[in-house]
Amino acid sequence: MSLESEEMSVVDHLTELRKRIIYVLIVFILGLVGGLFCAKPIYDYLISTDLAQGFVLHAFSFWDGIGMYMKIAMAVSLVISVPFIAYQLWAFISPGLRAEERSATLRYVPYVFVLFLIGLSFAYYIVFPMALSFTISITRSMGLEETYGIAQYFNFMFSLVLPLALLFELPLLVMFLTKLRVLNPIRLRKMRRYAYFTLVFIAVVITPPDLISDFLVTIPLLVLYEFSVFLSAFVYRKQLAADAAREEQYTKSED
């Protein structure tokens, strides 16, 4: 391959990548517009739960109400965009895959949405209430008067819920990279201690500064990693079997 053809290939790849990014931005903006229409009923639901009924929320600036609607709209848009982003990623790298790899990895795309919703539900209904209750109990034990702003409440919620929901994509990401032969269970087991350290660090960063919240997020992340290793081993065994069958067929054809 000449230098000119290589340069054209790089240009073609960059052009394709730009096209995929533009598609993602269009879907995200459309999801943002749709999210603005859904913001009011979602907001009404979030503040009508028992969790939010324990205290009065205040607005401390003129932009708090608009800011909350925009945050909710962005969350809705993210839910819509995540599977589409996964599809665009698949579409970008699929020309370099074999036919069976393309069909196999394409099947992962719907599960991106499912895992994101599972992570979202786990974070909102389990981790967020416990983290909020713990921080409030500390505040009250110190005899402090509670005056919570609507912006602080939703910032606390989104900073905890959304990152954890995204981290629930870890098993699918590991399966995808194993299918592309970038990862394998042997490599994942060797890097386990570093992965554990990284996941604990992530849990500490995205949670409030208390031991209970860190623990509630760290344990599921470690379980997700071990589940990812199990799924990687499952995919890897199928790859080895397919490679052996292909080599055997090639040997027979040579004979």
UniProtKB/TrEMBL annotation:
Q: How does it sit in the membrane?
A: Multi-pass membrane protein
GO cellular component entries: TAT protein transport complex
Q: What is its main location?
A: membrane
Q: Which residues cross the membrane?
A: 20-38, 69-90, 111-136, 156-182, 194-212, 218-236
Query: Which GO BP terms apply?
Result: intracellular protein transmembrane transport; protein transport by the Tat complex
Sorted keywords for this record are: Cell membrane, Membrane, Protein transport, Translocation, Transmembrane, Transmembrane helix, Transport
Q: Which GO terms describe its molecular function?
A: proton motive force dependent protein transmembrane transporter activity
Where does it live in the cell?
A: Cell membrane; Membrane
A Pfam family the protein falls into: TatC
What is this protein's function? Part of the twin-arginine translocation (Tat) system that transports large folded proteins containing a characteristic twin-arginine motif in their signal peptide across membranes.
Q: Which NCBIfam families match?
A: tatC
Q: How does it assemble?
A: Forms a complex with TatA.
Q: Which family does it belong to?
A: Belongs to the TatC family.
This one is known as Sec-independent protein translocase protein TatC
- The species this protein belongs to is Paenibacillus etheri
User: Gene encoding this chain?
Assistant: tatC
